[in-house]
Design goal:
Strands 1, 2, 3, 4, 5, 6 and 12 form a seven-stranded mixed β-sheet that branches. Strands 7-11-8-9-10 form a five-stranded parallel β-sheet, with helices on one face. The protein is built from six helices and twelve strands. The protein is an alpha/beta fold. Helix content is 24%, strand content 18%. It has two domains: 2-129 and 268-318, FAD/NAD(P)-binding domain, CATH 3.50.50.60; 143-193 and 229-264, FAD/NAD(P)-binding domain (3-Layer(bba) Sandwich). The chain binds flavin-adenine dinucleotide. Residues 8-14, 31-34, 39-41, 50-52, 57, 95-97, 124-126, 128-129, 168-169, 200, 271, 274, 288, 298-301 line the site of flavin-adenine dinucleotide.
């Protein structure tokens, strides 16, 4: 069967794109390597919450159901599950795409022994499967983790932990661990706290203004960096204000880190491996991934316009 589009990745970006594809009447399939809906949110640590309220976390078409305060990751998983069912999105899972090649005027999407053939490709593979760890010289003799696989505080109880990273995940994980372990929180500069009465909504507004400017062909106004980066969620604020959460300047060598554990909260890279060889071919569209695609593209509320643009690209390419 020849599809008009194969969407690779069934997280929020893939689903939002499917929402628009479905409205446009093209035939498509979504391939996702997880056993169930939810994308990266299935891998969030147990205490992780959004940094904005449910009213600011809407995919196109259907708002996120209300949740008091900052919703936990499982609320997002439930939302994505219901969204997929509501719009009857054809997701095949678990299907891990190994590669995409272009041959004979079509794209051939390979996963294990199976192949899907399509006229266009939407890459929506996210970033969680490509955790990034910066290089530092020296040797660390304890156990290393990445925030992508942080399991919650229990394995660290009574131990010594180095947490690396001065953004939201580093602050949240370090704050949580301060109540069960001896924590050293390494950051490259002074942590840049957002004002306590400001939450993630301000980041989304910033992103929206940037996206509108870029869409109009104006210069990207950039982020308002004076406002800070770290959302002072209640648990984080409490750890900071009580003095438990204090930043330490970044180490120069891993050999200087003598804790039992080291948790890298140093971000992710786009998981574009399977589509690398066709990335610049006409008919390949990227959704999600953050600034590589556009301001706010890797947020729930911000992905809609990019999903719509990709779906329109598919329609134009297959008309
Ligand atoms: P994903 O959710 O990662 O979905 C991609 C899917 O594709 C996954 O199921 C993946 O397993 C699958 N996949 C990958 N490779 C393949 C392959 N080769 N074959 C088949 N399937 C594949 N956003 C907000 O809006 N609000 C917040 O408060 C917020 N907080 C965040 C906090 C943290 C700590 C982090 C890390 C992110 C946060 N985000 C937040 C950002 C954002 O919403 C997520 O990163 C989001 O999950 C991106 O969605 P996605 O669909 O692009 O990617």
């Amino acid at each position: 069967m020849l599809y008009d589009a194969t969407v690779i990745g069934g997280g929020q970006s893939g689903l939002a794109t499917a929402y628009y594809l479905r409205k446009s009447g093209v035939n498509y399939v979504v391939l996702d390597d997880q056993p169930a809906p939810g994308g990266a949110w299935r891998h969030a640590w147990p205490s992780m919450t959004l940094f904005s309220t449910s009213g600011f976390s809407n995919l196109p078409g259907w708002p996120m159901p209300y949740h008091e305060g900052f919703p936990p990751a499982r609320h997002v998983v439930e939302y994505l599950t219901a969204y997929e069912q509501r719009y009857n999105i054809p997701v095949e899972r678990p299907v891990h795409v190994d590669s995409v090649i272009r041959d004979d005027g079509a794209f051939h999407v390979r996963a294990g022994g199976r192949t899907w053939t399509a006229r266009t490709i939407v890459a929506a593979t996210g970033t969680w499967s490509a955790p990034f760890v910066p290089y530092y010289p020296g040797t660390f003799t304890g156990r290393q983790w990445h925030s992508a696989y942080y399991p919650g505080p229990e394995p660290f109880r009574g131990s010594t932990v180095a947490v690396v990273g001065g953004a939201n995940s580093g602050a949240q994980i370090a704050a949580e661990l301060t109540s069960v372990a001896d924590v050293t929180w390494y950051t490259r500069g002074e942590p840049r706290w957002m004002p306590d009465d400001v939450d993630g909504r301000v980041l989304f507004r910033r992103n929206r203004d940037r996206a509108i400017a870029v869409a109009r062909g104006e210069a990207d106004p950039g982020t308002d960096s004076s406002l800070g980066d770290i959302v002072a969620l209640p648990t984080v604020r409490e750890a900071r204000d009580s003095g438990r959460l204090k930043a330490t300047p970044m180490f120069a060598s891993l050999s200087n880190v003598t804790t039992a554990h080291l948790i890298w909260c140093t971000g992710f890279r786009p998981a574009l491996g399977p589509v690398r060889s066709v990335l610049h071919e006409p008919g390949v569209f990227l959704v999600g991934y953050g600034d590589r695609v556009g301001p706010g593209a890797a947020t729930i509320t911000g992905v809609g316009p990019y999903a719509k643009r990709a779906a329109e690209g598919v329609v134009t390419a297959t008309r």
